[in-house]
Amino acid sequence: QTDAMARHVLGTFGRESTIIEEPYEVPAAPPRFDPGSLIKLLWYGRSGNHDTLCPGILPLVDDATVRFDLTVVTDRLSRDLMTLARRMSDSDTGNLTIREWSLSCQAEALSRTDLVLIPSFDRQDKHVKGHNRLTESIRAGVPALVYALPAYRELAEFCWCGEDLRVGLR
Predict the structure, then answer these.
(1) Mean pLDDT, to the nearest integer, of 148-159?
(2) Helix (H, G, I), strand (E, B), or coil: what is residue 72?
(3) Rounded distance, CA 167 to CA 161, Å?
């Protein structure tokens, strides 16, 4: 579904690919950003992306200048998610709510959040990720802070795109 994936397929298998974008799943909404004193953050996705939670979100937890409520909407609990939950419970900077993923839960969470977080890190399997979570956020009218993966850099004019989400949040 991305140029990076097509290049990977070509390099690995020697075959050209046709890029087929993922469909939109949540309703469109006008852009909005009006956070209160406690910013509402949202991470949503499958457990296969939980390995990005601690590297991307713990710097926010460890930053005493940041106050937030984080909602995680996902398909199951994992060791990475539980590590994040433990670290957040020991901190005064953020509160965590975990909700079971469904399309309606994702849409409802998007309608109530101030910012979507899409952390990641520099690794080949992450480079071929699609941009569906970012496009859903943009479509829902919610600003997103995303790690600078190839698919997200394609949409950098519509989000904050970098390596340290704290910089984007500030």
Answers:
(1) 92
(2) strand
(3) 10
Q: Would you say how long the chain is, in residues?
A: 170
The type of residue at 14 is G
Radius of gyration of the chain (CA): 16
Residues 6+ apart with CB under 8 A from 141: 28, 29, 30, 31, 32
Closest C-alpha to 32, from 167, 143, 166, 157 = 143
Distance CA 91, CA 135 (A): 31
Residues 6+ apart with CB under 8 A from 21: 1
Residue with more model confidence, 11 or 55: 55
Q: Are 106 and 134 in contact (CB under 8 A)?
A: no
Average pLDDT over residues 134-152: 94
Residue 68: predicted pLDDT? 95
Number of Cβ atoms within 10 Å of the Cβ of 62: 12
Q: Which token pair is 150?
A: 């190839």
Query: Other CB atoms closer than 10 Å to residue 33's CB: what's the count?
Result: 9
Band (109; pLDDT cuts 50, 70, 90): very high
Determine the 3-state secondary structure of 107 from DSSP: helix
